[in-house]
Write a structure and sequence with these properties.
Blueprint lengths: L2 H14 L5 H8 L3 H14 L19 H18 L5
Helix pairs in contact: 1-2, 2-3
Length: 88
């Protein structure tokens, strides 16, 4: 859980305890009221785990396939080794 997610959890815990209103929490977190409602709902339903980014630990949608990356790295190292000049 990132620092930002931990901070959100702490603020939403105070909202759940009735110490703060959701409007105040959203403002404190730099969110719109609507976004505050959205993360507040996820916090109520799933707890602090609901605030963790859903893509955390997964590969990027834009990442090259691993097979292609391995092939490119292999060809690059072959070229690099070939271009190395040993001086005497």
């Amino acid at each position: 859980m990132s620092e930002r997610e931990q901070r959100r959890a702490a603020v939403l815990e105070r909202v759940a305890a009735g110490e703060w209103k959701l409007v105040q929490a959203a403002e404190l977190l730099g969110l719109s009221y609507r976004q505050g409602k959205r993360i507040g709902r996820r916090y109520r339903e799933e707890g602090a785990a609901g605030l963790v980014h859903r893509r955390a630990g997964k590969a990027s949608n834009r990442a090259y396939p691993k097979r292609l990356r391995r092939r490119k790295v292999r060809s690059f190292t072959v070229i690099a080794k070939r271009d190395v000049v040993v001086s005497k």
